[in-house]
Structure prediction request, 127 residues.
Amino acid sequence: MRRLIFAALLATPVAAAAATEESDFVLDTAGDLADLCATPADSPLHVAAIHMCQGYLLGAHHFHAALAAELGEDIYCPPPATQAPSRNEITSAFVDWMAANPDIRSREALDGLLIWAAAAYPCPASY
Prediction:
């Protein structure tokens, strides 16, 4: 099942990086999400962008946890809560990964986020 999900996630075109704009809040693409998450502190959109970014990341994580529990399949395997990175660390890691993987920017926001999460927190091979 996990392989089928990844196969579906891996078939989308490329987009270019851009600065944060109000249109990014629609979150059409993973690039929009990365732009929100990378909004500099001196931007007038910073507070709203970071709240939207981290809310989206947390909501996607909760969605994944519920879906994985129902289906018995995980897309990614995060560390236990006692060892989990902070929201700011997760946000930075996602932004850095997206910068290193620009071909993912044009994917749907959730697809790009899950591809990153699977790369950042792979499940054990025996899982």
